[in-house]
Every structure is written in C-alpha cells, then in structure tokens.
Amino acid sequence: MLKVVQCWDDGVQWDIPLIEILRKHGAKASFNLNAATHKEQRHGEHKHKDVQLVQRLALAELPSVYEGFTIANHGLEHKHLSALSEDEARYEIRENRKRLQDIFQQPIEGFAYAYGDYDDQAMRLIEEEGHCYARTVKHVLPCMPPESPFAFHPTCKFNDPEFFQLYERAKTEGGVFYFWGHSYEMISPEMWADFEAKIQHITEDPESEWEELVALFK
Q1: Cα angle vertex 133, ends 215, 22, to 5°?
Q2: pLDDT band at 66; cut points 50, 70, 90
C-alpha cells in the first residue's frame, strides 16, 4: 500500500480553499508555519508572479483554519538557518515550536527548512529541540528511508509535470509518495481544478492511503 503525505508552507490565505478540497476528499496534510509572521490582521502585498495576492493569515484565524490538520515548525521568522549563529538558530527553532504549541495545543514534531536552507548545525539543533524530521526542498525517489530524518527530501512539488509518473513509481520504489508546495502557487481556476483532481484520484486509489508525515518516523 502506497503511503501518501503532503505539506504546505507559510500560512497564507490561499490555504483556506486548499483545505476545503482536502476536507472534501478526506486527505491528510501538514502545514508549516512561522508564528512571528502572523499579526492581528491579515497582511502582505506580495503578488506571486504579479498575479496572485499573498497575505499571511491573521493570528486569531489559525486555530479554526487548520483545525484537524498537523502543524509543523517552519522557523519563527522564516530565516535562513545557515546564516545564523547557534544561539540565533536555536531561538528561531525553539521559540517557534513553543508558540505553535501554545496556539494549536498539539505537539509540534515536524520541521520544514525555510528556503530549503540547512546545514549540520541546523540538523543537530532541530533534533535537540524535539523534532522527528526536517524537510528540505531537494526532490528524490524513493524518499524513504531518508539519508537522515533531518534531511528528509520529498518526492516532488504538487505541480510537477511528472506528478503521476512519480506517484506510480513510488508504489514500487520505497512505498511513500511525498509532495509539497505553497497554496498561492495555484494562480488559475485550471490549476485549482487540476489539484483537486489529483487529491480525488489519490483518495479513490485502492492502492494508496493518506498518512501523517510524523507517522513515518514513529
């Protein structure tokens, strides 16, 4: 049975329609958040590809938006960990985990590197601070077992042109298919429809099942 896992970064307003699709089809997912980037009101004027307005969700929205989903650590302020001193990196990791656990009242055991940036120091600190894995942005197949739980490479992004070819290969090459992305990358109705079709296909495939990321390491 193929285990399928997914995660999404940054806690933006486009996670709301994405989660509606996931709930509709019974799909599990982890969301990687930076607690310090969420304020009292939604904020942000960045436009992805000059088309899609990207705003961070308001702090008070977070518990209800992500209810029923797993939350993972993405660093307090979305910083490059390799550019920080040991004390600064530890604070970025530890403080975000603490704040997310306070907000969501759930264990925070997973980590995703901001910008995919990591080094040996970051890997060590993430393990010391109570996490069981840390995701990179390097794509590999098979993704399990990883070279290290703290350099855990996913299979592909959600919009990879070879998404289903990789999905089928994963059934015989490791038994885990792991995709990721940012919800703001879906900039057209066609992209949203394509994404929902992928989620529905996986849910209805008798040879696959949705799994929690942290469950892969327990």
Answers
A1: 50
A2: very high
